[in-house]
Amino acid sequence: MAHPHPKSRRVELPGEWPGTITMTPDGRLRIYLGRGHGAANSAGWTWLGRFLAWASTGVRLPTEIHVHHMDNDHLNIREENRMHLHRSEHSRLHAATRTRNEKGQFAVEEAE
Ligand SMILES: [Zn+2]
C-alpha cells in the first residue's frame, strides 16, 4: 500500500471505516481509500476530516477549503469539532497560535 508519510503509524478508531487510518508525526489522521475513490487523492488517501465531509454530503471538499479542528485535537473527529474554512482564513486562524520548533522556525502546517 502506498504510504504518504514514512513515520505515520496505524491507529484504530471505534466504528466501521472503509480503509486504514494512520496518524502523521504531527498528530493528524489520514485514511487510505484506494485510488479512484471519490474522496481520495490520486494516491488513494485523504485527510480523515475531508473523508468525513465527503461521507456526510457525497461531495468532495474543494481543495481551497480546509477542515479545522476547533479544539486543535485531530483525534476529536466529532462533527461539532470540525469547521470548514477557506485556506486563507485557516492560515490566519493558526498564525496567531502557531508554535516555533527547536530552531525557532514556525512549524509548517500542511493543507488539510
Ligand atoms: Zn486548523
Give an overview in words.
With 112 residues, the protein is α+β, with helices and mostly antiparallel strands. It has one domain (9-95). It contains 2 helices and 6 strands, in the order ββββαββα. It has a 4-stranded antiparallel beta sheet with strand order 1-2-3-4. Strand 2 and strand 3 form a beta hairpin. The mean pLDDT is 88. Bound molecules: zinc ion.
Brief digest:
This protein has 112 residues and is of the alpha+beta class. Helix content is 17%, strand content 20%. A hairpin with a 5-residue loop joins strand 2 (21-23) and strand 3.
Layout of strands and helices, then pairs:
Blueprint: E1 9-10, E2 21-23, E3 29-32, E4 45-47, H1 48-57, E5 65-69, E6 82-86, H2 87-95
Poorly predicted runs are none
Number of domains: 1
Q: How would you sum up the major sheet?
A: 4 strands, antiparallel
Whole-number mean pLDDT: 88
Spatial order of the strands forming the largest sheet: 1-2-3-4
Chemical compounds bound to the protein = zinc ion
Please state the structural category: alpha+beta
The helix/strand series, from N terminus to C terminus, equals EEEEHEEH
> What global shape is seen?
globular
Tell me the distance between the termini: 21 Å
In percent, how much strand structure appears in the residues?
15-25%
Tally of extended strands?
6
Helix content: 10-25%
